[in-house]
């Protein structure tokens, strides 16, 4: 007999298939554009772990890195991948010769800081729900479905820096 309270998981995970498609489309466009003729401009998808994926933007100049980034953002938007998944705060670095590159992190999984922020928001909401950090996920559970839906609305309103998803909804 299952006596579980209604719950759902709060996750942060981009659609990696669409991310890869956007990178491939961006590289295709860079390859056909006249202003990139003969340049080293490209976007590399780097798989670092089981779920960790990062991007490396390559180009001949800081200005060109900006153009490469603009193409990528347009392709991501077209494919429905939220650009808030990208963290391009890393500095543009020299890459031998007169080439430059910029690492771009793809955010995946809720880190400790964001998890605590979600927990605090849930506590302050005075709703009868609990938030438990479980690895890179935050599980929210409560007795009433309406309370859970109120929490989803609250998190959508308060946490705007990343595109949270809500899944594994259990009644």
Furnish the topology, listing elements before pairings.
Layout: E1 7-11, H1 16-32, E2 42-47, E3 53-59, H2 62-78, E4 86-87, E5 93-94, E6 100-106, H3 112-124, E7 129-134, E8 137-142, H4 145-158, E9 165-170
Antiparallel strand pairs: 1-8, 1-9, 2-3, 3-6, 4-6, 5-6, 7-8
**How are helices and strands ordered from N to C?**
EHEEHEEEHEEHE
* Largest β sheet strand count, sense and barrel closure: 5 strands, antiparallel
Taken as a percent bin, the fraction of beta residues is: 25-35%
Average pLDDT, rounded to a whole number, is: 91
How much helix, percentage-wise, in residues? 25-40%
**How many β-strand runs?**
9
The span between the termini is 14 Å
- The Cα radius of gyration reads 20 Å
Overall, the morphology is elongated
Structural class: alpha+beta
Poorly predicted regions are none
- Work out the helix count: 4
Descriptive overview:
With 171 residues, the protein is an alpha+beta fold. Helices cover 36% and strands 27% of the residues. It contains four helices and nine strands, in the order E-H-E-E-H-E-E-E-H-E-E-H-E. The protein has helices spanning 16-32, 62-78, 112-124, 145-158, and strands spanning 7-11, 42-47, 53-59, 86-87, 93-94, 100-106, 129-134, 137-142, 165-170. The strands form two sheets. Strands 2, 3, 4, 5 and 6 form a five-stranded antiparallel β-sheet that branches. A four-stranded antiparallel β-sheet has the order 7-8-1-9, covered by helices on one side. A hairpin with a 5-residue loop joins strand 2 and strand 3 (53-59). Helix 1 (16-32) packs across helix 2. The longest helix is centred in the N-terminal third of the chain and has 17 residues, at 16-32. The chain is elongated and about 60 Å long. The model has no long low-confidence stretch (mean pLDDT 91).
